[in-house]
Amino acid sequence: MRSMTNPRWVLIAALALIAGCGNRAPSVPGNPLPLAAGNINLIFVVSPDLEYQAAGDVQPDTANLTPQGLQRSLLLAPFLQQNVLGGGNVTAIYALEPMTHLQTVNGYPDMAGLETIQQFDMLNQITTSTGLGTESTQGQNFPINVSYAPGSVPMGVAMPSPAYACPNCQGIDFNDLDGDNETLLAGIVAGQIPGYYVFSAPWEATGAMLAKLNAFRNYGLTLPTSYRSPNLIYAISIARSGSAVLVTYNSNATPSATYPILPGSPLVPSACQATPFSIPANGTLLTGAPPNINTNETVYFIRHANAHPSATFSDGNYVAAGQWRALDLVNALRGKVDPSHVYSLDPAQVTNGSLSASEQSYWSHNTLAMTPEPYVIANNLPYTLASSFLLTDANGPKEASTYFFQNGQFSNQTILVAWEHSNIPMIVQQLLASYGSAASVPSWNSLDYDSIWTVKLDSAGNLTVNNSLCEGIDSTPLPKLAPQF
To answer: Distance between the two ends of the chain, CA-based, in angstroms?
Structure first.
């Protein structure tokens, strides 16, 4: 019998633990083989923040990714899919809860964890159903979990409604309140379900998760103790026996510093498709401004990028076709809007959607926040998440109307707001009601991803609303697969 203490056989055993059996995608020179699908693979992607990044990946004034940082995330995606997962489908994705890591003196949320893993999410697939066993739909995407663990909500953030509890949506808490991150990792390991579990968070959170898991499980792994490179991916691969190895991959990405150009044929431009409206109907001002109304304010409302390949599909994320629209938003909006700030909803809020194979129908609401993110990056605009009220509250539209149009916060500003399409008319209806107007607000067609609603308040607070603008991207021919970089 050959002794397993022989270094050659120890190496072979370790490689077998990593690679497992079956055909694997060819490895990139200098990198290990892909991870075995039969193991529990905890894969850690280090997203950049102001403290730990490659020079030029994060904007110092807005704490958002630069075009270079976005390019790096686009290059990461296929490397991660092919060389780490071996072309397999991801099992779960967890990203940083943005409101747990506020940066700069203005307290901008850390969106880099989500954006770093967004393109990778588009290279995977999830199938959902109506729950009636009669219809299922595959989306060219995979949900990203960024919601709060029960009771672990940052100061100033609305407490999730019990009706929308989503323990399976938990993301990564930068501050690890109540040991939430360790609880998440321990639950995955204890669940004994093989597959690929991907985590995207800054080095501070990633390093702590690696160290605490190693200590808690007594793996005895030699782990990195400091930040080394934005291209390194760390994986703890756990065999059925319970033994674990640390595997380190290097994407060797050298991203361009310019905003990415979409590959292949350009998106098909189109004229505005929605039926035009203006409130008041004659285009004059709606007068009789209520107390505390903002003045000299313009708000451009857009909805999330393409998210529903069928009427029954919804998982809180846009599908691959939406990635084309989101990445092209910088071109679609050029010359039409000129905001000084962009707002959207905290993606940690939960939405109810269709049913997954694991019988989950509640999801982190990423779609809204991720839609304008590339536009924000291209223009280096400050980005803020509305988190002090819940979209799903019965009083949500009124709270949103008060937030965006009263108490002076947005007076003398022009802002872009990415919001839920059926909620936007209700916000406008609440705004009209504050003027004493019973004018009817048209609904937003569920197939309309293109419209832009413009709300203007003049120097006296008088109001006009119209949909004369649109992005001008035809949804019908959008590719079903994500752009490849």
So the answer is: 49
